[in-house]
Amino acid sequence: MKVKNFIYLPFCLFIGTSVAGALPEIPEPFKYGVGGIENGKIYIGLGSLGNNWYMIDTNQSEKKWTKIAQWPTVPREQATATIIDGKIYVFGGIGKDKSGVITLQKDVYSYDIAKDKWEKLMTRPPVSLAGHVSFIHNGHAVSTGGVNENIFNGYFSDVELSKGNSALTEKVNRDYFSKPADDYFLNNHIISYDPS
């Protein structure tokens, strides 16, 4: 399996200064998203872009951001992306469910660069993937870190239930954010996804 170059970040588009100075502004404000590079083409999406994804070809003399196929499901933040063999793989993240409550997303999608098409993959991570990191190793997407699903979803459920009661919202936030790090039970597993 041929591995392509990639950039992962819960995304702050880090590109060398010489390239960054030559690129036009991104069409929309961009934070908390994902991105990657393949063959000089930069792909960005999710986060504050919602369902929008963009690509810019740094090999072209006239560089411009082009909208590509929209993300097909719940917009999200804190996902990760890797590029392997011409496909962008997006893992997890957080987004609002149908009732409007922020929850962990447990799905995996791939974007076929050549076909400009998203596809939901028939797999699920064995641990929650939000606030995690992903990278490529030996043709596999490897992920580690991230939040505990029950604690994280519980916090956002409590925030939703406390709406309209500022004292209760303050208590929910204080209780959640004042815990010692060990009480969050963050993910300490390393998982691997083989796209083949």
UniProtKB/TrEMBL annotation:
The record's keywords, sorted A to Z, are:
Signal
- The keyword Signal appears for this protein: yes
Q: What is this protein called?
A: N-acetylneuraminic acid mutarotase
Against Pfam families, the record matches this protein to: NANM (PF24996)
Note the InterPro entries from the entry. Kelch-typ_b-propeller, NANM
From the UniProt annotation, give the residues forming the signal peptide: 1-22
The taxonomic lineage of its organism, from the top, reads: Bacteria, Pseudomonadati, Pseudomonadota, Gammaproteobacteria, Enterobacterales
Q: Which organism is it from?
A: Escherichia coli
